[in-house]
Design a protein that fits this description.
about 300 residues; two-stranded antiparallel sheet; 12 helices; globular; about 70% helix
Length: about 300
């Protein structure tokens, strides 16, 4: 640093002074230390079980207290040669292809209607949220009471003079899986609609007003104006519902059909449970779990690509 000082006689003399040393950069170690517990939790409870699935899939393990031996790819051959596994793959594919579009499209349309704030929209929000507040066993009991041979649905058909259409809906190979799909859609559509309504409520009013000035009706405004604005959010919700339907279907199958009749309503997630806790074949169970994991990963990547997610 250069300073000017006065010399005798009034002349100015430039004089350099030593500059202060630059402060060393502060290391942000506090944030790293605080992140260590979360990292340990993630490694133990997330990465650990995922690695364990692949390890157990390579073992012959006929029960928790039974001796373990290395099986290699034998479990993969056993799973692929099992017709029950192929039925589970087919049923899971049908469930996802039917339930997911119905749930997302129906929920978006309901959410758009609620976001327009019609009369009684606050009460409607609560009513749509009710299925999400009911426990899974309670929802299963409701559907059992409706769809059992002496249930409400067959009773209504009889009252309407359509008794010939009555059936044991949960015990029929042609309708058991369809009943489970209806339960999945009913359970998820209201909760998802509330999420869509909340997101649509944050869209600026000017967008809707501009669409109305251009002569766009509700249908066009819903799909051509508002849907592109919340496209990323739709992708996130679709991912969540995909994972819930794929991995959460086991509980509905267990409570209502036990995978039957035969294997007509067996899904991949229920097959993993059945082989692990009923048949005590842990190697088969975790091999099917590996396939379930790969299906979930492929589904998430596909959904990201369809909705052009940028994260």
């Amino acid at each position: 640093m250069t300073l000017l000082s006065s010399a005798p006689g009034g002349a100015s003399v430039a004089r350099k002074t030593p500059s202060a040393p630059a402060a060393p950069p502060r290391r942000k170690q506090g944030g790293v230390i605080l992140a260590v517990p979360a990292l340990v939790w993630y490694l133990v409870f997330m990465v650990g079980p995922l690695v364990a699935i692949f390890v157990i899939a390579a073992l012959h393990w006929p029960g928790m207290l039974q001796p373990v031996s290395f099986a290699g790819l034998q479990n993969v051959r056993t799973v692929l040669d099992d017709p029950v596994f192929m039925d589970a793959v087919t049923n899971t594919a049908v469930q996802l292809v039917v339930a997911l579009p119905l749930m997302i499209v129906g929920a978006y349309m309901l959410g758009y209607y609620v976001a327009q704030q019609p009369p009684g929209h606050r009460v409607l929000r609560y009513l749509l949220f009710i299925p999400g507040l009911i426990s899974t066993p309670a929802k299963a009991m409701v559907f059992y009471a409706v769809l059992s041979p002496d249930g409400l649905f067959n009773g209504a058909l009889d009252k309407l003079g359509l008794g010939s259409l009555a059936d044991a809906w949960l015990a029929s190979p042609s309708t058991a899986l369809a009943c489970l799909i209806v339960l999945d859609v009913w359970s998820g559509i209201g909760f998802t609609a509330v999420l869509f309504a909340a997101r649509l409520g944050s869209v600026p009013d000017e967008i809707g007003e501009a669409a109305q000035l251009d002569g766009a009706g509700h249908w066009r405004a819903m799909w051509r104006i508002h849907f592109p604005v919340i496209r990323d959010f739709v992708g996130v919700v679709t991912m969540l519902q995909f994972l819930w339907t794929l991995f959460g279907s086991a509980q509905n199958v267990l409570l209502l059909t036990q995978g039957g009749p035969g294997s007509s309503s067996t899904t991949l997630s229920f097959l993993v449970y059945q082989k692990a806790f009923i048949a005590a074949d842990l190697g088969y169970s975790q091999t099917a779990g590996v396939f379930l994991f790969l299906v979930g990963l492929a589904g998430l990547l596909t959904i990201r690509r369809v909705f052009r997610q940028n994260y």
